[in-house]
Design brief:
Largest sheet of chain A: 6 strands, mixed
Helix content of chain A: 25-40%
Shape of chain B: globular
Number of strands of chain B: 4
Largest interface: A-B, 25 and 18 residues
Mean pLDDT of chain A: 95
Low-confidence stretches of chain B: none
Low-confidence stretches of chain A: none
Shape of chain A: globular
Structural class of chain A: alpha/beta
Strand content of chain B: 5-15%
Number of helices of chain B: 4
Distance between the termini of chain B: 35 Å
Strand content of chain A: 15-25%
Helix content of chain B: 10-25%
Radius of gyration of chain A: 24 Å
Largest sheet of chain B: 2 strands, antiparallel
Strand order of the largest sheet of chain B: 1-4
Distance between the termini of chain A: 39 Å
Mean pLDDT of chain B: 94
Oligomer: heterodimer
Order of helices and strands of chain B: EHEEHEHH
Chain lengths: 455, 109
């Protein structure tokens, strides 16, 4: 029986699903044993489940209980606060471990590429989401939420999350694990209107029906849809566009039929609209919107075409949410166009024993569960490779390889966060939340996280 | 509220949904698959992968399938909340309304 040591870089859903698949495969086999070391740049695990999923979605966040089950396996180790390209290199991991799986996600976003995008008050959803979720990298962001109108550019679930956070009753948010600094900024309820714009039509929007319908149930909030935007869409059109589009149109028609209520804050959904330019003297003051029409491209896909019509609206906050994007991983190939690591069936192009899972493999699409099958596919390739090839025991490691790997990691980053350290952070946050009926009060500062973790 | 599997799954059981479910809450009966209403975390991964479009969020269930919310729940009357379908495998707990459905197997191409 051969024991394989596998490193997984990144501790979000795709990393944890890959770990679970590996351990399960080892359980089912009498030929292999597997040990998994998960390496994470932050002191905290769970990736976007901790720092991406909106704080008012505790049910989805509860998927972390699955990750805790995996982490409790005696063959699994967590090492946080260790960064690839800073403490360790990809080539070193590939040399010391039998296989390395990269689960680093998509850590950046697509720009709008319009004038004024860099003005203070124009922010990326990936940053804004990290900020309200207490991601340590965005602690200092402090966006100005004192304006009356915000424009959210994009028609996906992240855009909907951002819009919802901006107008949700702060007393509701106060019972979640939202970052304290975000709650304080949202307390005055200055934002009266969120304009959610999408360049294509209602039929092409990428919301899931559940997220779209949730907007209509927000206390003290009207969802405004101009009925004229839905006029040309027949029941047959909706049915032809697929089950989810059909359900979305049904919800949108309901919104279009509602009368606005005085004193309510508003989420306005506007389709066939693109941002053209952001204006302001030292900060965002207005946005120029362009009106689009739908035309069919060469492949028959409906695309947005600028009609030339323009409108300028006063606005104080612009959040762009037009897609996450992967960033290059030091020491690995990168497909600039797609923002992913090129691979074949999960094995990194040109590599013997490096693999990819999740968003850095296939791009930022799908929901949490989508990553389970995706990770399983890569693990299938990995196990096949291990079975088919003769892997020499890495020379640097004799008998007690796992201990030596841990010693090596510690020598590179003496401030490692182990599972026990993370458990101390976890306990601290949960206990801080208890008196306030919150699931946890998140610690945002990196130094504070390390202090609590190291005890 | 939860996702629900409706009648078009009967005698199909494609199981693509099971591969996507991050909490392993989709259980197999003799005739169809069932989502555990208390174990589902509403992530929605299963819905778009079903080849026969059998999965709906409860609120979106077409009226002809409205009883399937209860049917999914009834499957677990004896099973309770096992906390994972893999270790349970196939059981014969299909509610009577599903058991009595005419076989669809022959109708398939």
């Amino acid at each position: 029986m051969r024991q394989y040591c596998v490193a997984i870089v990144g501790s979000g859903p795709s990393g944890f699903f890959a770990a679970a698949s590996l351990l399960k495969a080892a359980d089912a086999s009498d030929r292999i044993e597997v040990a998994v070391d998960m390496l994470e740049m932050l002191p905290t695990p769970w990736g976007l489940v901790r720092c991406g999923v909106a704080p008012d979605h505790p049910k989805i966040k509860s998927v972390s209980q699955q990750f805790e089950k995996t982490a409790a396996d005696r063959r699994f180790r967590f090492f946080g606060n260790i960064k690839l390209g800073e403490h360790i290199e990809a080539a070193e991991l590939a040399e010391r471990y039998d296989a390395v799986i990269y689960a680093v996600g998509a850590q950046s976003d697509h720009c709008l590429n319009i004038p004024g995008e860099q003005l203070p008050g124009s922010v990326a959803a990936v940053d804004f989401v990290g900020w309200y979720n207490a991601h340590p990298h965005f602690e200092q962001m402090s966006p100005d939420l004192s304006g009356a109108r915000a424009v959210v550019v994009g028609n996906g679930n992240v855009a909907v999350d951002v819009a919802r956070m901006l107008v949700t009753d702060p007393d509701v948010l106060a019972l979640t694990d939202i970052a304290d600094h975000a709650l304080a900024s949202l307390r005055p309820c200055s934002v009266e209107e969120v304009l959610l714009i999408g360049r294509r039509g209602a039929l092409q929007s990428a919301f899931t029906t559940l997220e779209l319908r949730e907007l209509g149930a927000l206390k003290g909030v009207d969802v405004v849809v101009d009925p004229a935007q839905l006029e040309g869409i027949s029941d047959d059109d909706a049915a032809a566009a697929g089950k989810i589009a059909k359900q979305n149109i049904k919800v949108l028609r309901d919104y279009a039929s509602r009368a606005p209520r005085p004193g309510h804050r508003r989420i306005v959904l506007r389709f066939l609209t693109s941002p053209i330019e952001i204006n302001g003297d030292g900060k965002v003051e207005s946005i120029v919107l362009g009106r689009n029409e739908l035309v069919s491209d060469d492949s028959g896909r409906m695309v947005a075409k600028d009609t030339g019509a323009r409108e300028e609206l006063p606005v104080q906050l612009v959040v762009r949410s037009v897609g996450y994007r992967g960033v290059p991983t030091p020491g690995l190939p990168f497909d600039e166009k797609r923002g992913t690591i090129p691979h074949t069936a999960g094995r990194v192009a040109g590599s013997r024993n490096e693999y990819v899972v999740g968003w850095i493999k296939r791009g930022p699409t799908g929901v949490i569960g989508t990553n389970k099958k995706d990770s399983q596919d890569t693990v299938d390739t990995l196990l096949n490779d291990l079975a088919g090839a003769w892997h020499p025991e890495p020379a640097a490691f004799g008998g007690d390889r796992a201990d030596k790997l841990a010693q090596w990691l510690t020598s590179r980053q003496p401030e490692l966060i182990t599972a026990a350290h993370w458990q101390a952070i976890d306990r601290f946050e949960r206990e801080a939340g208890e008196p306030h009926r919150r699931p946890r009060v998140k610690v945002t500062s990196l130094s504070e996280l390390l202090r609590i973790g190291h005890g | 509220m939860t996702y629900v599997i409706a009648e078009s799954c009967v005698d199909i059981k494609d199981k693509a949904c099971i591969e996507e479910c991050p909490v392993d809450c989709i259980y197999e009966g003799a005739r169809m698959l069932y989502i555990h209403p208390d174990e589902c975390v509403d992530c929605g991964a299963c819905e778009p992968v079903c080849p026969v479009e059998s999965i709906y969020y409860e609120d979106d269930l077409p009226s002809e399938f409205s009883e399937y919310t209860q049917i999914n729940a009834d499957f677990f009357a004896d099973l309770g909340s096992p906390g994972g379908a893999a270790k349970i495998g196939t059981t014969e707990n299909d509610p009577i309304a599903v058991k009595n459905l005419e076989s669809r197997a022959q109708a398939l191409p």
